[in-house]
Amino acid sequence: MEISRKYQRELAIINLFQFLFYNHKVLFDFLDPYFKDLLTKYLENKSDIDLIIWNIVRYTDFSILNEIEKASLVLLFLETLYSDLPLKVIISIYTNLVIKYCRKNFNKLIPVFCQKVKEMKNIEKQIGKKKEGSIS
Which of 98, 89, 108 is nearest to 70 (CA)? Predict the structure, then answer.
């Protein structure tokens, strides 16, 4: 039985939440290769990615994030950077996800966040590795 991409994304966010909040090991059992790869990239470059995300959100109304918001932004960051999906699709997906899981008005940060990630030059060098092509 194949699990939908939408549900896979939610599982990935829940995995990241448990890792950030409870310091649990990330479980890859139910994730497809796409999300396994994204989570592996995060685990290998956690401090660099966290710093980039903080630099984007620190001057917004959301400078204090809870763990589910952090998990959502981490996965959003990785998908914005490495996915072949159009930016508008990514924004739509994550806007709906954060409306479901995060505090009121957090969804307003999503388009701004994505645009800032797309505008950053040489971001791949900042996370320790050069981008070796997109993942689908």
Answer: 98
